[in-house]
Design a protein that fits this description.
heterodimer; A: mainly beta; 6-stranded mixed β-sheet; 4-stranded antiparallel β-sheet; 12 strands; B: mainly beta; 7-stranded mixed β-sheet
Chain lengths: ~120, ~120
């Protein structure tokens, strides 16, 4: 079964600083990978996705992520964080379930706090 | 284009009762998935419906059920509520079902509190 690990529960960065959120996955084949963001009391918004091809993917709000097969990682990055980026970030893998269909498996999330 | 709409946004129920949550997907989307989000367990997949058929189910007891109507709207039902069912229930819609080359769009969720 697939799994996703986000080793950092909570990260604090200063506004304007760079950001990297870590994500490691476990899956027996090439996965479909996603990053979602959730503001308090809200649903999930897709930041970016990786299906195939170029391993560096660009998303919304200036985020990017790099798929590294050798490290089973899909880390999220942003060169300069804005106060509005404070939220919880979830990495997810899409893979086949036991029925042969696909479902999303989420990591436990990383809460980002931005200091002024 | 309207997003995914979940109703109600908040619910308070008593242990032993049952509850029905509703999800209206984005127009044209045929797949609706449900997820439960709790502080302890995180985001967990409940089930997915596509063209009125449940085609994927997570590891939840039979008290959790759902259905999808011909207009793709979906409902999920939880019977005999337990305190541990308190959670944010999120619905996601996609044209074909994640991740078949598409992405899932999430609603704002229904916050269920069981007392």
């Amino acid at each position: 079964a697939q799994s996703v690990t986000q080793p950092d529960i909570h990260i604090t960065v200063s506004e304007g600083a760079s950001l990297e959120l870590r994500c490691n996955y476990s899956y027996g084949a090439t996965p479909y990978l996603f990053w979602y963001v959730q503001s308090p009391g809200q649903g999930l918004q897709l930041l970016l996705k990786y299906f195939s091809g170029d391993t560096l993917v660009q998303g919304i709000k200036g985020f990017e992520a790099e798929f590294k097969r050798s490290q089973s990682s899909f880390n999220l990055r942003k060169p300069s964080v804005h106060w509005s980026d404070a939220a919880e970030y979830f990495c997810a893998v899409g893979a086949r379930s036991g029925t042969g269909r696909r479902a999303l498996t989420f990591g436990s999330g990383t809460r980002l706090q931005v200091q002024p | 284009k309207a997003g995914v709409t979940q109703t109600p946004r908040y619910l308070i129920k008593t242990r032993g009762q049952q509850v029905t949550l509703s999800c209206s997907p984005i127009s044209g989307h045929r797949s609706v998935s449900w997820y439960q989000q709790t502080p302890g367990q995180g985001l967990q997949f409940l089930f997915e419906y596509f063209s009125e058929t449940q085609r994927n189910k997570g590891n939840f007891p039979g008290r959790f059920s759902g259905r999808q109507f011909s207009n793709s709207r979906s409902e999920m039902n939880v019977s005999t509520l337990e305190l541990g069912d308190s959670a944010l229930y999120l619905c996601a819609s996609s044209p074909l079902g994640v991740p078949l080359g598409t992405e899932a769009f999430f609603g704002q969720g229904t916050r269920l509190t069981v007392v």
